[in-house]
Amino acid sequence: MCYYVDAKLSRKEIREVFNVETEFTEFKSEKMLSGFRAKGTVEKPLPIIIDENPDTAVIGDWGLLPFFSKDRTFQSKTLNAVIEELELKNSYKNSINKRCLVLVNGFYEWRSLDKFGNPDPEGKVKQLHRIHLDNGDKPFALAGIYNIWNDIITFSICTTKANTLMADVHNSKKRMPVVLNENDHLKWLNIPDYLDFAHPKYDVKLILENLEPEKTPNTLF
Hints:
mainly beta, hypothetical protein yedk fold, 5-stranded mixed β-barrel, protease, covalent protein-dna linkage
């Protein structure tokens, strides 16, 4: 899944990398932003680009709120949207053709290990990794869907079956966010068949950074 992202990016980077204007003056960028809300926290802002205005980045609130939401507590349930099931979920089916790009500088996932440091889907030890698109360490986009609720742009990050690299990292659930190559941004925003972006039909080259190598045993080979 995708509940933690690297949101350390500036307005200048957004303008240069995505060739857009920025419709916000302030954005608190965070190296590790969690979609989960601590007590007393209301907003989880991230820069996004929506299909209706692809030339401008705006601030969206992580956790899609469908039209029937009575309040914002529902957002904890909609941080991710399973791309293979969008039409089946009441929360998402009205947003299938409301597409957005979620702008990040990476995302995080944990590999499950046994007590000896060996990969084990049932393991209790968790080893943190940062994942990035192989694009020269520039900001990149995740595929998202959105809905405007009470004048607030709310969004979910779409997830798909993990590719080979991510299945090794996210070895308990074997899911990953839909990461977009730069030349596919407009395709995601405009092409009706969203399943064109589900793995294995769609794949990208990712780079993996192990942030806790001390949890893996040293070997001679």
